Description:
By secondary structure, this protein is α+β, with helices and mostly antiparallel strands. The chain folds into 3 domains: about 1-80, no CATH class; about 90-135, no CATH class; about 175-195 and about 205-240, no CATH class. Helix content is about 45%, strand content about 10%. The chain has 9 helices and 5 strands. The protein has helices spanning about 15-25, 30-45, 50-55, 60-80, 95-105, 110-120, 125-135, 155-170, 235-240, and strands spanning about 1-5, 10-15, 180-185, 210-220, 225-230. The protein has a 3-stranded antiparallel sheet, with no helix packed on it. A hairpin with a 6-residue loop joins strand 1 and strand 2 (about 10-15). Helix 2 (about 30-45) packs antiparallel against helix 3 and helix 2 (about 30-45) packs across helix 4 (about 60-80). The chain starts with a strand and ends with a helix. Residues about 1-5 have low confidence and may be disordered.
Amino acid sequence: MFFGRAAMLRLTFTQAEARALAHQRFHHQHPRVRRKMEALWLKSQGLAHKEIARLAGVSGNTLRSYLQQYAEGGIAALKELHFRQPKSELAAHQATIVAYFREHPPASINEAIDGIRELTGFSRSPTQVRIFLKEKCGMRRLKTGTLPAKGDPDVQEAFKKKELEPRLAEAKDGKRAVFFVDAAHFVLGAFVAMLWCRCRVWIRAPSGRQRFNVLGALDAVTKEVVTVVNATYINWVWLF
């Protein structure tokens, strides 16, 4: 048995408890719990409170609270964390804010601040709004994408349902092969960064417009990628 002296609490530690404290002070996932375990392990080794507080990096009052927790609930009590988590006034309006920004996505944090002020009457700093949008609303600042001007969502959905999905089903049954095909064209040229020099440096570049073409085909079922390359040109005759 290990005995620790205290002004108000007399704690006893079994060898199993001391080993558990020694293990948890290094391996528990939360740093605050590891600090509690460290303090109690030092207590189990018979150190004075002043020395325990110094080694664990806590105040005397904090150490007494750790000892009280252990006295009342053992190691399980030390693992409990009670953080004060003030609730944001914006939380009550979260659904409204998310719905509004889904239809009117703000281009900047300042625009988001104005929108939240108009919706809720609350004014918050840029940092507070940024954290609220990320952590509570699941929003991120993303670059917008573009759709082809001639793109028709209804036609695309009809193609997907009536033509693409039936062919994919046949491919899974081994009745046909479906590939998603595209080509990339790499232009051979010189791309030079900035240089510190007294006179401008000239680099010899390739003559003419030289290309390196890569055709890739992804098997819809096996996900195998087939590539064909050349240095001339690609057209639909060449593809088929």
